[in-house]
Design brief:
The chain has 20 helices and no strands. By secondary structure, the chain is mainly alpha-helical. Helix 1 runs antiparallel to helix 4.
């Protein structure tokens, strides 16, 4: 395990030191963090194509904190700190796999996360996925730790604040995990409730209190800034509309081109090259609902679109959803994952991860239910909203731990079968 951790750390530090050309979101996070350090607030500046509030606040706030401690905007330093935190996901994967099926499963899972290329590449820019992967695996591990407390030990109730706080921090990095945290709390309530409902309710409320302690201050800030309830970030209307746009065939990268093609009166030539998706959708929203705030209009349009899809074209919409689910699980994020070797590697992780989850479910392990609920929730969110493989990237430590279970249990079964012969 020490060797795996050293390899993971070396690969991540190398990426963080050299850096990579940032994708659009990474550049936006870097801009927001720098503006925060300069005292200009949570903003992208006057020439941004969308408001900064559309971005998750967790990563830029954390990076701005690093800038404050180190005395200025030093992006390489921030990347190095994030690389150290990203390495923790490898350790957490090992601990989860070891708990589920022993040291061998943990080592296999840790090795997968240590070298998974998409996670490594994102360590070379300010992207939230590696940090979110660490927070999610840490939150799950903390949930296991809290659940291990003896039933009669009342002093251990405070343990449940830790997984709650980690899920809260994760929500600030990936807002969709607010819903996941609520589902996890239901799992805790139902699983623990079989023995003592009142004690289980207290533990569940403590977990939710941990989430609220982290998320509520930003929610209050949003209420003051926007004069409305925004739990974490805006932009929900945009992702709802893009995620329910049937002509895109489930590929969010095609939404802009399809909208331009179907509304030539709104856009001039080469609009797809000149405008980003948020600009295209804002122009469409302004035509459809003049005077209404863009995200509110897109939310309204997305709901109308979803209803029309389900009621008028249910079979086509079912195929659309299936395509989106396939998209997030069947391919890894980043171009490197489309190379044959790494594509096979990704598929092996998914297949053995499914085997591992099935084995644990057959053993009636409550941990399997917890992980399955997380996977189901994120898959459902992707099926409704934008289907990006980046969502699966956050779950890679959990998936890799399950793959370790799948490989180890399959090998044990094979040896047992050969021994009988």
């Amino acid at each position: 395990m020490v060797v795996i951790l050293l390899v993971a750390l070396g690969l991540r530090v190398n990426e963080a030191w050299d850096g990579r050309s940032p994708v659009f979101d990474a550049a936006a996070y870097a801009t927001i963090a720098a503006n925060l350090d300069r005292g200009e607030g949570f903003t992208l500046g006057p020439h941004a194509t969308q408001p900064a509030s559309n971005y998750s606040p967790g990563l830029p706030l954390f990076v701005a904190g690093i800038y404050e401690v180190t005395g200025g905007v030093h992006e390489r330093t921030a990347r190095l700190v994030l690389a150290l935190l990203g390495t923790l996901s490898v350790l957490f994967t090992y601990l989860i796999g070891r708990r589920l099926w022993g040291p061998s499963a943990g080592l296999i899972g840790a090795a997968i996360v240590a070298v998974y290329p998409a996670l490594l590449e994102y360590q070379g820019m300010l992207m939230g996925e590696p940090l979110a992967a660490t927070l999610l695996s840490g939150a799950v591990l903390a949930t296991f730790w809290a659940a291990d407390a003896p039933d009669g030990d009342e002093s251990s109730r405070g343990r449940w604040l830790l997984p709650g706080a980690l899920f809260g921090a994760l929500t600030l990095v990936r807002p969709e995990y607010l819903g996941v945290a609520l589902l996890v709390s239901l799992v805790v309530l139902c699983w623990q409730g079989g023995r003592n409902w009142s004690r289980s309710l207290v533990r569940t409320l403590l977990l939710l209190a941990g989430v609220a302690l982290v998320v509520a201050p930003w929610t209050v800030r949003n209420a003051v800034a926007f004069d409305r309830f925004v739990p974490v970030s805006t932009g929900g209307g945009q992702v709802l509309f893009a995620g329910t746009y049937l002509p895109s065939d489930g590929d969010p990268e095609k939404v802009g081109a399809e909208v331009v093609e179907r509304h030539p009166d709104l856009f001039g030539p080469h609009a797809v090259q000149r405008l980003r998706l948020e600009q295209i959708l804002a122009r469409l929203a302004a035509q459809r609902y003049p005077g209404m705030e863009s995200d509110e209009a897109l939310s309204k349009m997305g709901k109308e679109q979803l209803w029309d899809d389900v009621s008028e074209e249910p079979l086509e919409y079912a195929g659309f959803v299936a395509t989106k689910v396939w998209r997030i699980w069947a391919r890894g994020q980043r171009a490197v994952m489309q190379e044959p070797g790494w594509r096979l590697f990704h598929w092996a992780i998914v297949v053995f991860g499914a085997i591992g989850l099935a084995v644990l479910a057959f053993k009636r392990r409550w941990e399997a239910l917890l992980i399955a609920v997380i996977f189901f929730a994120i898959t459902a969110i992707s099926a409704l909203l934008v289907a990006s493989p980046r969502r699966v990237l956050v779950m890679m430590p959990l998936l890799a731990a399950l793959a370790g279970v799948g490989v180890t249990s399959s090998w044990q079964r094979l040896r047992l079968s050969l021994g009988r012969r």
